[in-house]
Design goal:
Layout: H1 5-16, E1 19-24, E2 30-33, E3 45-50, H2 53-68, H3 76-90, E4 95-96, H4 97-120, H5 125-137, H6 143-166
Length: about 170
Amino acid sequence: MGANRDDLLAEYYLKAAGVAAVWIDRDGLIGSQDAARLQLEDGRVAFCCPRGANFVLAYRLQLWKQDNDHVAAPNQAAMAERLEQLADEGGVGITPHAIAIDRARAAVAEVNARLAAMKSKGELRELNQAFRAARLVDPSLRYEAFMEAKKAALLEALAGRASASNG
């Protein structure tokens, strides 16, 4: 089953906000994603952090794992704990994956609520005029696609404010 529009917008928000991820699977494999995704593969534990820091954290965790493999391979929980320590030592804020995803979905809900409130108050006049002007240029443009693009622009603005307040 494909992602719904709100899920696509939530992933767009994560990308716009520069939210990356570091994950650890149940076998101890460490990975990094430049843009966090909504869904995790089964058996993975993930943390989100600013883009760029994910590679450094994953690399440092891999080095730690290699240094500790001679006793016994560290388990997933120990590796997750060490990842949090590495982030703290490096001054990098990390957030459990589920919390970051909840925040992205909350941003989408906020944008949807704002637009719904504007619609109920009859405040979409300028937006509708912009759609009509765009439609003159591209008659194949659908209103839903236009509104999704406007939602994405609002999410970019929210992501910019969130990044500025965290940076």
